[in-house]
Amino acid sequence: MLGLWSSNSHTTKSQEGETKTMNQLTTKMKRHIKHKLKDEKPTIWIGKDGVTSQLLKEIEKQLEKKKMIKMRILKTALQNKSAAAIAATAAEQTGASLAEVRGHTFMLYKKHKK
After folding, report:
1. Domains of the chain as residue ranges with CATH
2. Are 23 and 97 in contact (CB under 8 A)?
């Protein structure tokens, strides 16, 4: 059970030469998150304004409370960016891991701090 919740943290180097650490979810963890959230309805909807500071605060608040959340992107938000790009932005700015993007819905996971 210990291996299920330990995320692999590794360092990557971008084209600009800056180094950043990313939390990668294992396949087993992704399956667990999908299973837990499959019957849940999205708790946050992203509208035409995209990922705003207020939205980021709400995402962080819910991640602190539940560890994993399901979010939905409305069609008006998809006119400028793709669903994967919006999901990646939300994950990066909150420090969460992106579990899955399926259509206009995506799932985020953030390990609780000890």
Report:
1. 41-114 (3.30.110.60)
2. yes
